[in-house]
From TrEMBL:
The gene is rsgA. This is Small ribosomal subunit biogenesis GTPase RsgA. One of several proteins that assist in the late maturation steps of the functional core of the 30S ribosomal subunit. Helps release RbfA from mature subunits. May play a role in the assembly of ribosomal proteins into the subunit. Circularly permuted GTPase that catalyzes slow GTP hydrolysis, GTPase activity is stimulated by the 30S ribosomal subunit. NCBIfam families: ribosome small subunit-dependent GTPase A. GO terms for cellular component: cytoplasm. It comes from Halobacillus locisalis. Monomer. Associates with 30S ribosomal subunit, binds 16S rRNA. Its EC number is 3.6.1.-. Belongs to the TRAFAC class YlqF/YawG GTPase family. RsgA subfamily. Keywords: Cytoplasm, GTP-binding, Hydrolase, Metal-binding, Nucleotide-binding, Ribosome biogenesis, RNA-binding, rRNA-binding, Zinc. Zn(2+) binds at C247, C252, H254, C260. GO terms for biological process: ribosomal small subunit biogenesis. GO terms for molecular function: GTP binding; GTPase activity; metal ion binding; rRNA binding.
Length: 293
């Protein structure tokens, strides 16, 4: 038996990399009985007499996994959001950050299309960068034509498995193609009538880029907090975690409780009012979520 990592899943085949060689494998029937499906990113034991005739025998325990996109064992998430076309959306960015934090995956943020902004618009994006950096997030203001920002993005990729997240049309595939032109990942022009991009990426695949593995995915088709509980949400805001020991009550939800350190931080300006408003929005969404049976 040999150990490898699944880098692509397509039409019932799993493509497993081991020592730089890729083996085409099928899953054993007992995976179906156990209702377990191998995922891109899985570390697996496999057996292959030929490169196109292998079988996956077992899957190592995952440190995390996403359902949509279907991928496991992610080290970090590169969250791409555009400054314009589509316009920057802080609520959507915070939603992505919560989804990633809930999986204990380290995010870093790329704000794309900076070269298309006026000076006032650039200043607004720089203020957002400073705010997110003060929380502890890495933020890169990027333009595909700017080699310095591309070098910064690449420096984050080495020795890690990275998933790329972001709404359609923000430039995820363009960013990857700029970093490594050999990929030639399909991109589509934004539909002017809809103001959003078409899904051009069809399946999840890990590409070797800048000394790491990067997943170009069909995107997060579900942005719902399906399995996130109310008491987990505050843990997804690092600036809340930093001060929560100062709250009067353990398990404080930072909403209606008295003597709350988070609310005090918002009042004095050390915690962003906008981030706190987004937190309350997500809290209400989870509290009003219909139960699943």
């Amino acid at each position: 038996m040999t150990t490898g990592k699944i880098i692509k899943a397509l039409s019932g085949f799993y493509y497993v990399i081991h020592d730089g060689e890729v083996y085409q494998c099928r899953g054993r029937g007992n995976f179906r009985k156990k209702k377990v499906s191998p995922l891109v990113g899985d570390i697996v034991e496999f057996k292959a007499e030929h490169k196109d005739e292998g079988y996956i025998l077992s899957i190592e325990e995952r440190k995390n996994e996403f359902v949509r996109p279907p991928i496991a064992n992610v080290d970090q998430a590169l969250i791409v959001t555009s400054a314009i076309r589509p316009d920057f959306n802080a609520l959507l960015l915070d939603r992505f950050l919560v989804l990633v934090e809930a999986k204990r995956i380290e995010p870093f943020i790329v704000i794309s299309k900076m070269d298309q902004l006026s000076e006032d618009e650039k200043a607004e994006m720089e203020a957002y960068r400073d705010m997110y950096q003060s929380i502890g997030y890495a933020v890169i203001l990027s333009a595909v034509s700017d080699s310095a920002s591309m070098d910064l993005v690449q420096s984050h990729l080495a020795d890690r498995t990275t998933v790329i997240a972001g709404q359609s049309g923000v430039g995820k595939s363009s960013l990857l193609n700029s970093i490594d032109p050999r990929l030639s990942i399909d991109t589509d022009e934004i539909s002017e009538s809809l103001g959003r991009g078409k899904h051009t990426t069809r399946h999840v695949e890990l590409y070797e880029i800048s000394g790491g593995l990067v997943a170009d995915t069909p995107g997060f088709s579900s942005l719902e907090f399906g399995d996130l509980e109310v008491d987990q949400l505050p843990e997804c805001f690092p600036e809340f975690v930093a001060v929560q020991d100062g709250c009067k009550f353990r398990g404080c939800l930072h909403n209606k409780e008295p003597k709350c350190a988070v609310k005090a931080g918002v009042e004095e300006g050390s915690i962003s009012q906008q981030r706190y408003d987004h937190y309350l929005h997500f809290l209400e969404e989870i509290q009003n979520r219909k139960p699943r049976y």
